[in-house]
Amino acid sequence: QKAVSDSDPELWQLLKDEKSRQRKGLEMIASENFTSLAVLQCLSSCLHNKYSEGLPGRRYYGGNEVIDKVEILAQQRSLEAYGLSPEEWGVNVQPYSGSPANFAVYTGLLQPHDRIMGLDLPDGGHLTHGFMNAQKKISASSIFFESMPYKVDQQTGLIDYDKLAENARLFKPKLIIAGISCYSRTLDYKRFRQIADENGAYLMGDMAHISGLVAAGVIPSPFEYCDVVSTTTHKTLRGPRAGVIFFRKGQKSIDKNGKTVMYDIESKINDAVFPSLQGGPHNHAIAAIATAMKQATTPAFREYQQQVVANARQLCSSLQGLGYEIVTGGTDVHMVLVSLANFKLSGAKAEFILEEVEIACNKNTVPGDKSPMNPSGIRLGTPALTTRGFKENDIVQVAAFIHSALSIAIEAQKLSGPKLVDFKEVVHKNDVISSKIAQLK
Ligand code: PLP
User: How confident is the model at residue 255, as a pLDDT?
Assistant: First the structure.
């Protein structure tokens, strides 16, 4: 057997290039992280070779006695990582990633064209929470279900729960999604539950971004209030690129007419994952989930998550000190949303200039943006830098680098006008600007 370095030198070079890119730059994309050696070993293990449609003990393929043990371990450890009792909660560790996990929840709990309410994408929700724009239903979650997004308050940047409650009374959703991709405050799950109960809706938590913080107990958990909780395992949780769904088992609840109803979420979710949506589970990823969930119960992991939040808070205060406006005025989690509206600098230009100096982040809409196509903010995250060992004093330096880069962007903008292409040309061709960038690299 030949190693990829021998069998495919062209691809091997690309793998080395990407590794060096990840090492050299500052990775500040809030959804990214550097996973552990143990997780990477599971991902490239022989478990990848095996087909195992079905659940442990009920497979459609032979030869699964070891795979069954791996999947059961992943299930047990996932429940343990969130302090859940196997009597009350079940878990499915087979979703290929976060989007398929969310679709499995919708497929299991809803009928086509049932109504859903999630946080709007420009306000910090995810595509899979029912995103559509004025012209088009964009996400399949808005094509196959009727979606009425809820929003943040334009002044405070905080979720407008009163408006959500008011609209839910009119729209009567069957499912409400409490989850975020770009929102730096904790969620009021109790309030979400009240609104869901008032309308006889399921409450789904999508903790993809924050699942590491929840496991470490550094922010409130969705489990007390939600019927079902989905997550990715590769963001703050620092595991493999995969998805997991937790669901309540045989839970009693009072419906809107005061009747006691029993949930049967377990079979609905399991059947939705397979056979409705997926085929063979990715057993290498399931093994990697098992080892990541084990790591998530350690004191070191808890310290790491505390540091992630401390670093995000430091980033906020350093950037505020340098004159930047932070949406909601701060952060409780691993991310910081910076509005550049006061500098009239677009998020796209900021993202571009930061990439030029090897700081990776996302352009992002901020409350008050007219168009999601031209956002005026950037989203910065601390999970990956914290994995590399960064502490608050390093983050002060990172904020200074960001400020230097954005100051160059503001200067380049004065020479270039509003269009991104003209801006890029100035950055690359103007001698003064390009030498300033070269110095910062
Ligand atoms: N849910 C939330 C809240 C997310 O932020 C994301 C990804 O960013 C997803 C779901 C989808 O995950 P994936 O990209 O793994 O499909």
Answer: 67
Taking CA atoms only, the protein residue closest to ligand 1 atom 14 is 98
Query: What's the mean per-residue pLDDT of the chain?
Result: 95
**Rg (alpha carbons) of the chain, rounded to whole number:** 23
| CA dihedral angle for residue 283, residue 286, residue 292, residue 298, rounded to 10 degrees | -120
Return the closest-CA partner of residue 345 out of 361, 357, 363. 363
Say how many Å lie between the CA of residue 96 and the centre of ligand 1: 11
Q: What is the pLDDT of residue 375?
A: 94
Q: Report the alpha-carbon distance of residue 236 to residue 386 in Å, rounded.
A: 10
Question: By the 8 A CB rule, do 247 and 226 touch?
Answer: no
Residue 441 CB partners (closer than 8 Å, separation 6+): 356, 357, 358
Q: Taking the mean position of all CA atoms in its chain, how far away is CA 316?
A: 20
Give the C-alpha separation, 363 to 166, whole Å: 31
- What is this structure's pTM? 0.95
Is the confidence at residue 441, as pLDDT, over 90? no
> Lowest-confidence range among 1-15, 83-97, 123-137, 320-334?
123-137
Mutation pick for ligand 1 pocket among 131, 181, 226 (CB with most ligand atoms within 8 Å) = 181
Q: Residues with Cβ within 6 A of ligand 1?
A: 31, 97-99, 102, 126, 128, 179, 181, 206, 208-209, 232
pLDDT for 292-337, tens place per residue? Answer: 999 999 999 999 999 999 999 999 999 999 999 999 999 999 999 9
Mean pLDDT (whole number) for 113-131 = 96
Distance 209 CA to ligand 1 centre (A): 8
Residue nearest (by alpha carbon) to ligand 1 atom 7 = 98
Residues 6+ away with beta carbon under 8 Å from 82: 214, 215, 221, 223, 246
Contacts of 371 (CB under 8 A, 6+ apart): none
Residues 378/328, Cβ–Cβ less than 8 Å: no
> Ligand 1: which residue has its CA nearest to atom 12?
98
Q: Helix or strand or coil: residue 44?
A: coil
Beta partners for residue 243, in sequence order = 232
Q: What is the rounded average pLDDT of the residues 69-96? A: 97
In angstroms, the Cα distances linking 101 to 96, 132, 139, 266, 272 are 7, 20, 14, 14, 9
Mean pLDDT of 367-379: 87
Q: How far is the CA of 234 from the centre of ligand 1 (A)?
A: 10
SS3 416: helix
The pLDDT of residue 135 is 86
